[in-house]
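> call design_seq(struct)
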């Protein structure tokens, strides 16, 4: 009965994974006082999404709608990352490093999404998010977090 929703669900699942990273870059842009440029990028992505929906929905239906959203999120992420790039000391350029950070950020986002229903004090949310992200990086064997743990062992 719900089999027809499987393809749009898979596309939206990837969109959500990239949205977690986009949120991180948007918060970085806000902290760097680049919120106006970030807003222009986001509104551009919205306009691209609307344009793609106008073209794709009549041809593909709901799959066209989620495809348009996915493309808009990717464009928004790429442009916002480029905006923040000069201010980031470590910016992953290799696909493996980017994928590792994407997965760790997504795991953190899912954990924070799930614990929001516990109505914890926001400090606990921050600690849980940081621990989830750090543990994810350790489990994924991200090289910089492993170097950091080695430095801690030396002290």
């Amino acid at each position: 009965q719900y089999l027809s929703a499987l393809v749009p669900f898979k596309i939206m699942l990837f969109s959500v994974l990239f949205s977690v990273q986009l949120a991180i870059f948007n918060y970085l842009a806000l902290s760097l006082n680049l919120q106006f440029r970030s807003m222009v990028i986001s509104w551009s992505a919205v306009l691209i999404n609307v344009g793609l929906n106008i073209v794709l929905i009549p041809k593909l239906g709901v799959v066209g709608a989620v495809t348009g959203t996915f493309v808009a999120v990717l464009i928004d992420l790429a442009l916002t990352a480029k905006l923040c790039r000069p201010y980031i000391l470590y910016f992953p350029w290799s696909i493996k490093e980017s994928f590792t950070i994407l997965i760790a950020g997504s795991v953190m986002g899912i954990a924070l999404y799930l614990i929001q229903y516990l109505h914890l004090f926001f400090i606990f949310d921050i600690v849980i998010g940081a621990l989830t992200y750090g543990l994810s990086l350790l489990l994924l064997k991200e090289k910089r977090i492993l170097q950091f743990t080695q430095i801690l062992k030396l002290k």
